[in-house]
Amino acid sequence: MGLYDVVLSWDHQQEQGWIVSQGWPLSEAAQRGQRAYRRLRKFLSLLEAPGPSPLSATASAATGRYELPAAQLAPQFATRWSGDWTSNFSSSGFRDAVAKCVDYIGAGDIFQVNLAQRLLTKALCSPEKLYLHLRSQNPAPFSGYADFGRTQVISCSPERFLEVQERQIETRPIKGTRPRLSDPTADRGMGQLLLHSAKDRSENVMIVDLLRNDLSRIADPNSLQVSQLCGLEKYPFVWHLVSVLRARLAAGHTVCDVLAATFPGGSITGAPKIRAMEIISELEPTQRGPYCGSLGYISCAGDMDT
Hints:
The radius of gyration is 22 Å and the shape is globular. Residues 54-66 have low confidence and may be disordered. The strands form five sheets. Strands 9, 10, 11, 12, 13, 15 and 16 form a seven-stranded antiparallel beta sheet that branches. It starts with 5 loop residues before the first strand and ends with a strand. Among the domains are: 1-51, no CATH class; 159-305, Anthranilate synthase (4-Layer Sandwich). The protein has 306 residues and is of the alpha+beta class. Helix content is 32%, strand content 24%. A hairpin with a 2-residue loop joins strand 9 (163-165) and strand 10 (168-171).
């Protein structure tokens, strides 16, 4: 998490941009205004200056490719996919982990768990180019790019975890996916199969119940409502089942309390959440890191979107 005194935001639909300069950390009005102006002029000069994009990475001198730090590479197991892809699970190891999850469900520990494997390959282009390619091929509402020097995080997510605007909370969990098809009739049929899938609807409803419980800790009594249950939404490459929950943030609570009550999201952990997280920690070979985290903002006005 970072605190930014200057923010450039861009609306891709309206093709308009804004630069907001706060003048932080100064608090005296005149001094803060002067600092805000100086910082604004500095960032405008950076934007107007010729040269390469500040989004960059360093290529390996040996291969000419963009590579992950060595600490992130183990363990590695070959996969059946074309290209130089590895997984942090062996094939048998993943099957064993799934079997253990099924055993935990049978024993009543959990109703569902989102077991994930990490896939690695060497990048053939810069992280910036990869992000721009993904954005052009699969535009998603929560696409994002974050550069941390040696590590870059690229998001191509359609899922809203949390939005708070004027104390109104919204979360849009996704559970249930089918591929899009090139034939329009078959594609619509695939969407209908998902919409009427008892298995996928059950998974979605479990997460809705989990989020209702999480939000009830910080929401006004009787304000929590499910405004959409298992709605069918289409994206460039997939169909999704999406539910929408809304509530009003109770007096005395802030967006930080909303995060504390709900993070991490139920759709990427399981139900009950705490036990599902314990099982994920037990079975997955490596910590997830940024994966299944959230990319977004919290404004100084107390609003947020992730």
